[in-house]
Every structure is written in structure tokens, then in C-alpha cells.
Amino acid sequence: MVLILIVMFGISVGLVFPTLSEAQKEQKTFVTHSGGVITTSGEVIDPVYSDSTMEFDPMEYLRDFNYGKISKLPDGTTVREFTIIAEDDKVMEVSPGVFYNVLTFNGTVPGPTIRATEGDLVRIYFINNGSKEHTMHFHGIHPAEMDGVFEIVGSGGGRFTYEFEAGPVGVHPYHCHVMPLEEHIVHGLYGVFIVDPKEKRPPADEMVMVLNGLDTDFDTENNFYAANTIPFYYQHHPIQINTNQLIRIYVVNMVEFDPINNFHLHGNLYHYYPTGTDTVPSSYTDMITLSQTERGIMEFEYTYPGKYLFHAHKVEFSEKGWVGIFLARDNLSQESVEADYGT
Amino acid sequence: MELDKKSSKGKILASGLAPFFLLIIMIAYIFGPGSELLDLGTPLPEITLEKIEFMDSEIQVTVRNTGPISVEVVMADVNDRIQPAAIEPDRFLERYETALVRIPFEWNEAEPYIIGLTIDDGTRFEREIEAAAPALKPDLEFVGFFAIIGTYVGIIPVLIGLLWLPFIKKISKSKYHFFLALTVGLLLFLGIDSIEEAIDVSDENLSSSFNGTLLIATTVILSFLGLYYTSEKLTNKADSLRISKPIAIALMISIGIGLHNFGEGLAIGAAVGLGSIAFSTFLIVGFALHNTTEGLAIAAPLSRGKPTIGKLLGLGLIAGAPAIFGAWVGGFAFSPFSSVIFLSIGAGAIFQVIVIILKWIREEGDSNLSSAAVASGIAIGLLIMYLTSIII
């Protein structure tokens, strides 16, 4: 009987203290994306993107404007030709370790930023290399048959040429308009279309930010939010800007499922031009609220150098990746680039 | 003649093995060249958050891969907000492999939390905790605390129950049968209770891939068979071991009840450890009342023997002390899988005890087990247990 009790005691001690023997493993210390420190013998799981594992480069996308192949009509009108290829079989690492099937225009989410000057003739050679039907639907002013809704482009190499006069001035989204529409949009078939005024905007350090979300488990709720697809990216890779230089952001909200999104800037306020259609800003603020495909142009300048956050003030979104940092420096080597409209 | 014998033996052997060979060939074919034929459907990954503990500024999650394919755990969140975390030993989980996810987080006591983990295909799995409570550390204070609870719940009630011994010794045969049957009723209730508890733990914590109910049924039956076999050997050898048959039977009952109390202690320890109940004195009183009846079960066969005080104490400890060990294990090293196993073993042990007592009643004269004493005993036993269980 005593023996049984001793054995019982032994078993329970063994079950209670198994951790003691494992405590000798090598401990490593990590600093996390939120600034916390973890000491562990295992691995850190934290959405920190390193350049080596990156497939889509949000930093490159940020200032990448496509002006197209340029030619002139006999009457002097500028023609801009673009080739856009839709695919739907790509699986992209959208956050470290998370692989998600994205539908793409020219291989990225968002698709390329298409830029033209008001009155230019925009011609887009659209090729659908996907396995589903797709189209390109531009927000803006164009003939009904160029609207990309009823002219479905078949899968496996279907083609369509969109041709229209660029207008109105401003920043507009383009996206696929094939049913089920929500599926095609949330998987990434969208991009930005900028129409510049004929009289140029003042020179500035210009950027595009598409506010988007990813529903990786298909429960009609976004698992991630971001500016330019990759969660937390600009937090780990701050956007370098100059102090005392005009910054212009073309911001487009493509978040689905959630009724609104917003944009809050730290340490500063910005002039906001809704849809970019007017030359007079509607407000001077540090907070705008955007509904689906609502967009505009933000202009601001930093006086003091340092790190400034920008993020959704719907904090849930920022805690799921829609957060970034501007690193403002005095006399940064990067020159203020004169806006070049490709003419 | 010898050749014939040998060849016929060979034939028997071959005919016995042939089905196995065919089965092996079929399995090899399915996994090998025939695998494409069966490549239908998409296997869906699954992980189960088996245990969540709240430590100093940290939430610890024990996660198990309970799906058909290996997965990578890539992200953790608290209340659906992404949190940086560590995973030990690493983020790759083969089938049934577990890992510990450590999320640094300033949690607040008694607040509800939903902990989520995301795997490589973007699927998120979550588990809700109704009220966060600090995890217990196996320090001396809590070791002592659980020892006291175990003593109150296990040892003392059983010993008190044993005090019925002089009373049982003096009563008539039919009244004695009644008390034996009463313990059968009590134990029957305990056995069913253990199985129910095991099913609860399994449903709440274990993935369906464990086939919880079948696991419990299998364990209960194996435990029953093992103990029944042992008890038969023990009672048959009782003479040579210089213990009387009643004491041998009482010993087997004590062991069975002890195994059951280990499971009960486990449940109490786990409940305290996981913060799912506040341990009230009321609850302890309930358990104590409940378990006093276990002492009666041991006392019943002893009344036909001549037990010494030492033997009585020993039997009481065997039956009651495991509650303490169970509380330690449940409080400090809770694992839902081992809880289900121990609760099932306890249930099997109880059923074994029931069979022994029924046999004892038959040997004592009521060969049909159909007397009014037996029927009413079992019925009243069940009712007593049901009523005391309401208090718990």
C-alpha cells in the first residue's frame, strides 16, 4: 500500500515538473513589431517583413507611376498605351508565413498606377490570362461600352481594348467588374488611375496609397489591413521624406466588408482634396473618413525632423497592419522630383 | 505422417496470414501507385487551442495540430488584434504535434479574452476564455493548498465512511445485502458521472480527430478488464498472501475508488488552475458528502473479515489520497488528453468494483440479485448520489 502511494506520488511529481528539465535550452531575445521584447528558445511569430522574403515591394509601388507608351495623334492629342494582363492563379505571401490566392493586374496587388493628363487618349490593351472572366472598369467619364461591365472578357487569353479620353482631373480607382464582384475585388483586382490637370500641380514628393484589406479565411471579415497590401510594412520600412518639402499622397480606399476606413497623420495636418477634382482643398485636417472607393489627394509638409506615424484611427485596422511611419529628415539626398507627366 | 502434419500446420499458418498479406498489398497500393485514384477533395488543416494560461504579462497557448496535414502557425492575436509572439519549439506542426505560443500581453484579471492563431493558409482558429485568472505556479503554498483540498475531499470522507463498519457488522444478512447494494448504486452513479465528466472535457478541449467518445469507451473497458483480471488473481491468491478474502475484495474496491478519486482530484485541480470555478467551501462540502459514501463501499465487504485499524487506515488512504495527487497534476500540469484518460480509467475501475460487489452478494446467498434488499439498495444508492450531486 505504501508502495502504491509512493508510485502515485512519483508519477504526479513527474507530471507536474516536466518543464524543469527543458529550461536549460538556449534562450534568444527578440524585439517585436510593437517594441516588446520576447525571450524564447523557439521562434518569433510577428508580422515583420524582411526585404529578402518580399515578393511585392510596397516601397517600389509607392512612387511608381506608369505613363504608358506615348505617341501623338495628327491633331496633337497625346496617346498613352498600356498593356494590362489579368491573372488569377497567383499565391502570394501577403504577411510573413501567410499565403493567399491573389487575383492580379500585371502580377501585383494593387495593379499598376496608371497616370495620364486630362484630355489624353488612354488606350489599354487588356489580356485576360486568368481562368475566370475579368474586365477593367474605370471610375471616371467615358462611353458606356468602355465601362468594363457588360463587355465580359473571356478567360485563357481573352482580349479587349479600352479607349477613352482621360478625365476628369483627380484620382480614381479601376477594378474588375465581373460577378461575383466582391470576390474579384477583395482578391486584388484593382489599381489607381490618376488624371493630372493640364496646368501641372506644384512639384512634390508624390506617393500612392491604396488602403486595402485581406480576408484570408473567407469569413467576410478582413484578417489584415494595410496601406499598399502588406500589413505593417511601412512601420518596419519607414517612408523617407524631406522636411520642408511638399508631400502629395494619392489615397484610395479599397477596403471591403467594413463600411469605413480612415487616415490619421501624426504631428501634422494636411490639405485634403476629395477625389482630387477641385484645386481648392475642402479641409485642413489630420483625419479623413473614407467609404468604399472614396479617394482624394492629401498635401502636407513637415517642419521638424523625426518619425511620424500615420494609420487608421479605427484602431482595429491599425492593429491589423494599416499603420506606417514617415521618417522626416533635413537635407535628405533625394532631390525633390519635378512632376514629370511623360510628355 | 509427420510430413502431413507439418504441411497441414503450414497450411493453417498460410491461411491465417494470407488476409494480412492481401491487406498490406492493398494499403501499399493505395499509398503508392493507386494514390491518384483516391485524390479527391481538399484536406482542410486544423489546429486546436488546447490550453490557455495567463502568466505574468504573458498569455501562453498550447496548440495542437489536429488536422490531416502538417501546418505552420504564423500569427497570434488577442481579441482579434494581431500580437507579436514566440512559439516553442518551432512554428512547424506535424499531425498531433503540439507547440507553446507565448504572447506578451498585459491582460486584466477576470476579463474575457479570445485568443486566435493564424496558420499559413490564412485560416484563423480561436478559443474564448470567460475570465482570465493567473495560472498557478507549483510553489509550496499551492502544493499545500491542494493537499488540504485533497484531504478534505478524498481522505477524510472515505475514513468517515469506514466508521460505518461496526454498524454493518451487527446487522442481519438481508440488511447487509441492502448496504452492499446501496454501495453498488452509489458506485454506478460515480462511474456514469466520471464518463460524463470525461465526455465534457473531451468536447470542450479535444479536437474531434481524437474520437473522444470512442477513446473514453475504449479506455473504460480496458481499465475494467485490467483491474478485473488483477482482482480475480488477487482474491484467488488471498490465502497464500495471508490476507482474508473480504480484505482482498476491500483492497480492490479501494484501488478502484482511488483511481476514481485521482480523476476527481484532477478535475478539481484543473478547475482551480484554469480559473473556471471559484473554489468555495460550499463546493468542498459537497464533494465531501458525496465521497463519504465511498467509505461505505469499502466497509461493506470488510464487515465479514477481521480488519485491523492499520489495514483500515491503509485502505482509506489508498482510496482517498489519490485525490491529492490528482489535484496537483490537474492544477499544475493540466492536459485535457490525460484528464480524459484518467477519468475513463477511474470509470472502468468503478465498474470493476461494482462487479466484485455483485459477485460478493451472490456468494453471500442472493444468487439472483433479485431480492427487495438488493433492488431497493441500488435504487436508493443512485438517489442519494443524485441528491448529493445537486449540491456540487
Question: Which descriptors would you attach to this protein?
Answer:
heterodimer; A: 343 residues; mainly beta; Immunoglobulin-like; six-stranded mixed sheet; five-stranded mixed sheet; B: 392 residues; alpha+beta; 2 domains; five-stranded antiparallel sheet; four-stranded antiparallel sheet; 61% helix; 14% strand
Largest interface: A-B, 43 and 45 residues
Number of helices of chain B: 11
Total tally of structural domains of chain A: 1
Shape of chain A: globular
Based on the coordinates given, report the CATH architecture of chain A: Sandwich
Strand content of chain B: 5-15%
Chain-averaged pLDDT of chain B:
82
Spatial order of strands in the largest sheet of chain A: 15-14-17-22-19-20
From the spread of the alpha carbons, the general shape of chain B counts as: flat
Structure characterization notes:
The complex is a heterodimer of chains A (about 350) and B (about 400). With about 350 residues, chain A is mostly beta strands. Chain A contains six helices and 24 strands. Chain A has helices at about 1-15, 20, 60, 180-185, 235, 315-320, and strands at about 30, 35-40, 45, 65, 70, 80-95, 100-105, 115, 120-130, 135-140, 160-165, 170-175, 190-195, 205-215, 225, 240, 245-255, 260-265, 270-275, 285, 285-290, 295-300, 305-310, 325-330. In chain A, strands 15-14-17-22-19-20 form a six-stranded mixed beta sheet, with no helix packed on it. Chain A has a five-stranded mixed beta sheet with strand order 4-8-13-12-10, with no helix packed on it. In chain A, strands 5, 6, 7, 9 and 11 form a five-stranded mixed beta sheet that branches. In chain A, a hairpin with an 8-residue loop joins strand 19 and strand 20 (about 285). Chain B is α+β, with helices and mostly antiparallel strands. Helices cover about 60% and strands about 15% of the residues of chain B. Chain B contains eleven helices and nine strands. Chains A and B meet through helix 1, strand 2, strand 3 and strand 7 of A and strand 3, strand 4, strand 5, strand 7 and helix 6 of B. Strand 3 of chain A pairs antiparallel with strand 5 (about 85-90) of chain B, so a sheet runs across the interface.
